[in-house]
Amino acid sequence: MKQIFFVILSVIVFMSPVAAQVLGEPMESYIREQEAVMDRYFETGDYQNAEAVLRPLIAKATEAAGPAHIKVLRMRQALANVIRLQGRYNDALREMQDAYDIWEKNYLKFNPYRMDAAMQLAVHLSKTGNANDALPLALEATKFAESVWGGANEQTMLWQYNTAGIFKELGYWDEALRIFDGVLPRLDAANTPKTRHYACSVSQERARLLRDMNRPQEAAQAYEETLKRDAACFPPNHPEIVHALGEYALVLYKVRDFDRMGQIMDQWHDGLMASYGENSLPFAEYLGNRALMKSHGTLGTPAFEDALADMRASVLLREKLLPPDHSFIGKAYMNLGAMENDAGHYGIAWQMALRAEQAGQGSRQLLMDTLLNARESGEIPEDEALSQAFRLVQVNHNSAARAAYEMLAQRVELGDTAKTENMRRFTDMQRRQDQLQRDMSYLAALPSAERRPDTERDIRAEMEQLSAQINTLGDTLSQQDIPFEAMYQTKPLSLADAQAMLSPQEALVIFDIGPEDWDRHYVFVATQDRAEWRELHVSIDNLKAAIRDLRASIDLRMGVRAGIALKKPTGPDRNAYDLYAAHWVYTQTFAPIADMLAGKDHIYTELRGPLSAVPPQLLVRNDVAAQAQADWLVRHHAVTVIPSIQSLKVTTLARQTARAGKPFLGFADPIFGDGTTPPDQQVASLDVTRAAMRGALAPLPETAVEVRAVAQAVGAPVAQSVRQQSTASEADLKHEDLRDYRVLYFATHGLVAGDMVTADQQLAEPALALTAGQGEDGLLTASEIASLRLNADWVVLSACNTAVGDEPGAEALSGLAQAFTYAGARALMVSHWPVESRSAVALMTDLFARRAADPTLSAAKAQQQAILAMIDAPQRAEWSHPAYWAPFILVGNPD
User: Which helix (H) or strand (E) holds 707?
Assistant: First the structure.
């Protein structure tokens, strides 16, 4: 169903010299007459006849005055809008772009009419999926209007509303809602015929936004207000009213107000019959919503069968009118699949779920539920169910970490240096574009007195330039036969391909944990010759609680590589580890697949949801009260964490590509200050300047010993491979060609977003603390890391909090880890919590010493052995606690 996001057709009057252009009589009178006819068609929603009037009118005016005449260009803009309102978005964009090109060639940039054309082009770009290109145009036009005409001007308010629509398209919903909420009362206060019409559109779009933000109660109230406004703006049964009724009906279904829904459905039906008839997409949507209303609470009754018949009829009508991959059909397939599943028609339900997915409306819950039910009922064979389940566990989960690994996999697979560099440049520019959009969204939300016009102007200029560069490079990529989807949608691995990448002693375990407690949760496990897909009967709320208890029993505050060093200096109680929680989590996760893991000494595991917040090594297989009797999972399996199954592909492909020539580069014991800060005041959360914050960090002289020992273990010359004190600097790192090194090692403080820079300013992103100087502040942030170029088998972050956040359900990898992956690191060693420095030195040097002694030993097995040595024969008694031996996880495979 068509959704009108923007109001841009109205003719605006500007006090400008170009307004003096006239066509003369009788042409002026003829144009006024035809525009009046067009306006009448437009007001009644008859956009087809409005177009029929405009096309010959434009042709006559062009013949009389030329293509660059203002009135001709304005009519072409009106034509583009009429075409857009008929749903022909690409045709409309071409018409609008052609007109704007003429504006650019013939009129000054800040001509008001050209600014209006820029705003309209922005709207059309947004409607065709090019909101990134639209935003700089819209922001510039809106800023022009605010500066020249003021916030109470009709055109300013309209353009602010249009800009909010673009923010909405880009996913900045809070910012869009803020603008809608600000514009609507000002339009009401103006109270002119034009602003009342604008207010109707703003009100409806605000209701849609609240609906999309999953705030149905507020959305219902907003739709009630919208319908009252629409009654004054439009004649009965106008398309805008009909659309609003249909949208409101679905919101009422979500809030379970079926009495009011029935009333709205009746009004909707009357409007549909008057404006569209039964052979139309709006009527298909009506049938679908009526089916939902009838089906509620009626399963097993004739009313449910009636509902099912309505939904089937809705699907058939959509299939008749639309191509099979259209999203409007996809939504209907999804609803029909859910109803067929409820009715016990599992095979049909599975097919509907697949069709919905093919039309871009895949639902994890529906796909997995119908697949499991169809398998258990015998309606699809076991081997097909396993193959589909393996595919679905890959495509139904998105995370920034997964995206980073998939981009890396694409670059490694492509191999061609020129092509991979272009792919990297393209994604770099898009990351920068996203950051600029976030910055602009923040600045635009500031009170007027705090706005920064110069900064905003610079950002808008950079956005416009970047947009052009992205489009140019996109053309280059197309010419190099690199499909854009390859950079963002890696084809899922087949089960057979994944199994072929495993050795006989290895297993792949994927925990597919749904986001809601009512979701069904699954585990998929594959070995070289077997595969199983099983449901996990666990409450996600209970899982989160248990993992919080586990994290709470690991609370290192003394001698850590972090920004919390001045907090209460206590170590963990050796008897405080929550063995019950560690065992309970094991029983809910790994225990159900223990039969598949028997005899497997290495596990690749993808952890989702709450499970991403703890290292699997510290889970306990037996129910004991004393830590000394704990049967740790790490005793039985070396563990490699993977954020994506594509990690296996990265490892396989990397073995076939040229490796970096130099073995190692390490950074240790940076200089954080002038050496005069007392140890008990060395912390990153003091009320200090950014430089003083670094100076308050505790020195880490022991890390130099750690990094030198690791360098020796990998056969690297220490003098050339270890940067410490003044050479462990951010500037030195940026001057290195990091693509030359197979292992990059950072033994320093890791700072997390939220650590204080000043009393009023927090770090906006995580960072590694290095030596400052040569124009660098010594804080290597995640965004700076992402801009590096690496060819590293392994990046070791022997610092704090470099794995994930401490909250269950956090992103699969921290911002630092994601950034290094994006930069080109094929494997990482990262920590789940602030590491105690001396035990970290012992653990990491032991790990690399074992690999040096036995070159055939994998990184995962070396880590396992180093951990077990610390558990069984710790240099200090307290180091047998998991807080000391379990913080690090191996992400990906560096071998």
Answer: helix 702-713
Other Cβ atoms less than 10 A from the Cβ of 674: the count is 7
8 Å CB contact between 887 and 833: yes
DSSP assigned state of 86:
T
| 150-to-139, 146, 459, 469, 688 alpha-carbon distances in Å | 15, 5, 22, 33, 41
Other CB atoms within 10 A of residue 232 CB: 10
Q: Could you give the CA distance from residue 39 to residue 81 in angstroms, rounded to a whole number?
A: 13
Other Cβ atoms closer than 10 A to 853: 10
DSSP code for 621: S
3-state secondary structure 786-805: HCCCCCCCEEEECCCCCCCC
Residue 140 vs residue 325, higher pLDDT = 140
CA atoms of 43 and 39, how far apart (whole Å): 6
User: Which of 517, 250, 489, 520 has the alpha carbon at shortest distance from 367?
Assistant: 520
Q: List the Cα angle 671/781/135 in 5-degree steps.
A: 155
CA 121 – CA 98 distance, rounded (Å)? 10
Which residues 6+ apart lie within 8 Å of 409 measured at CB?
490, 646, 649, 650, 653
Helix axes 417-444, 131-148, angle to 10 degrees: 30
Q: Residue 894 — very low, low, confident or very high, per pLDDT cuts 50/70/90? A: confident
Whether the Cβ atoms of residue 412 and residue 654 lie closer than 8 Å to each other: yes
Interval 618-661: pLDDT, tens: 999 999 989 999 999 999 999 999 888 877 776 666 555 667 88
- 419 pLDDT above the threshold of 70: no
669: region left, alpha or beta (phi > 0 left; psi from -120 to 50 alpha):
left
CA gyration radius, the chain = 31
Residue 490 per-residue DSSP state: P
For residue 477, name the pLDDT band (cuts at 50, 70, 90). low
pLDDT value at residue 690: 43
- Count other Cβ atoms within 10 Å, centred on residue 22: 12
Q: H or E segment at 747? A: strand 741-747
92 vs 76: CA distance, rounded Å: 10
Tokens of 11: 């003719």
**pLDDT beyond 80 at 72:** yes
Task: Number of helices (H) and strands (E) in the chain: give both, helices first.
Answer: 35, 14
User: How distant, in Å, are the alpha carbons of 110, 116, 423, 478, 483 from that of 129?
Assistant: 26, 20, 21, 18, 17
Distance (Å) of CA 371 to CA 337, 342, 355, 789: 11, 13, 13, 42
Residues 107-113: contacts with CB within 8 Å, 24+ apart?
Answer: 107/18, 110/144, 111/16, 111/18, 112/12, 112/14, 112/16, 112/144, 112/148, 113/14, 113/16, 113/18, 113/70, 113/73, 113/74
Q: What is the DSSP string of 398-436?
A: --HHHHHHHHHHHHHHH--HHHHHHHHHHHHHHHHHHHH
- Give the angle 622-625-630 at the CA atoms, nearest 5°: 40
Strands 662-670 and 741-747 come out as parallel
Those residues with Cβ within 8 angstroms of residue 706's Cβ, 6 or more apart along the chain or in another chain: 668, 747, 798, 840, 841, 844, 845
User: Is 676's pLDDT higher than 50?
Assistant: no
Report how far Cα 494 is from the mean position of its chain's Cα atoms. Answer: 25
Structure tokens at 268: 């909707």
141: CB partners within 8 A, 6+ apart = 115, 116, 118, 119, 122, 159
Rounded to 5 degrees, φ, ψ at 796 are -105, 125
The tokens for 456 are: 């905003």
The order of strands in the sheet holding 741-747 is 531-536, 521-527, 506-512, 602-606, 638-641, 888-891, 828-831, 794-797, 741-747, 662-670, 722-725
Higher pLDDT, 427 or 271: 271
CA distance 99 to 119: 12
pLDDT tens-place string over residues 184-217: 999 999 999 889 999 999 999 999 999 999 999 9
* pTM (two decimals): 0.74
